[in-house]
Amino acid sequence: MRTFHLFVFVLIITSAIFSQNVSVTDYKVAVSQATTFRANGFWNWSQVGDSVYSNNASANLIFRKFYTSLPFAWFFNADATGGRDGSRTQYDVKIDGNIRKYIWDKKDWFGFSGVNLEASKDFDQVASNMTVGAGYGRYINATALAKAVRIEEHLLKDNVITDHLPKGIMINIANIIEREDEYRNLYGSEVYETQWFADIEKEIQASGLLRGSNIGSIGILRMRQVLFGINERVNQRFYGWDISAGALFTITTPNKSRAGSPNLTINGRYSYPFSWRTQLNFDAGIFSPIDSSFAREVTVNTGFDFIYELSNRINLLTGYRFGIFKPDGETALVSNLLNLSFLFYIENNIYFGVNASYEKLSRSPKQMKTSLTLSYNLF
Prior knowledge:
Layout: H1 2-17, E1 32-48, E2 51-68, E3 72-85, E4 88-102, E5 109-120, E6 127-141, H2 143-157, H3 167-178, H4 180-187, H5 192-206, H6 216-227, E7 238-252, E8 263-272, E9 278-289, E10 298-309, E11 314-326, E12 333-346, E13 350-361, E14 367-376
Antiparallel strand pairs: 1-2, 2-3, 3-4, 4-5, 5-6, 6-7, 7-8, 8-9, 9-10, 10-11, 11-12, 12-13, 13-14
Helix pairs in contact: 2-3, 2-6, 3-5, 4-5
């Protein structure tokens, strides 16, 4: 009991030390949209005398278009590859689209749908499937705001800013961080970082809390460490809950075989951020085919994760997973998996991890494992 009281005391003290002008639940999802279309090709031909030794070519097309916001989001992706090697040709085309929409802006009912198509030289026909479903609740990914808070902590310690940034500035910075894909698509993967960082710096300058005219090289260094996970890790942050039910329908198969029965899936998620250092996540899912074996063949997966960041370089991660697989007319198989990990991010790009796990499967002996991980980033 004393250990538990000490643990709670540490959490309270940690939260007080790292108090901010903004909390996890203040985050509002950014509106982001972008379009990308890229193409590349390759051709290789070689001949010695009158003999052709190689004559092959390939091409790749990529198209991405998305729009994200809290009430409405959609994604469209298309990938096409093809080539010729001598007399042999090959191609593969994948297209998928997804949409998620809250029916009313101020209410929590939402619907979602998705379609996946694939064509290949090796297929007899286009393979396709569709997902439709609905749900209730609000489940928000606030990881971008957690990264903004971590950057702010560094800037305070390095005397780049004089005080905690205002809530509005912090949320604006988080929205810019979340729009990384938009910046990458607009400016290219090689140079987008410059514009991305510049827009974050403009928000910090607008606060009037900079000691100088800009964040300087130390500010850029700290942003890179946080945003790209160099020497430290910002764990994902969520808040809220939702529950959804959907069905996956296989419309056509690649070999023209019978499509089979649709499958029903029910999922639920819940996350509670105790502070900027602690996070509890819970999820559960139930799966069953919609045919004569409905509710007699069932798969259940559930579990939780608890995250405690002792510092920006030391993380405690714990997780438990519980699963049941019940075939029709057979005995259920049960699985239990418990994980515990300490992650240390040391200076000079050294990463050290201590991991332990306990696993018990039906009809199998229990397994207890420990491992140590050491890695060094050369570049």
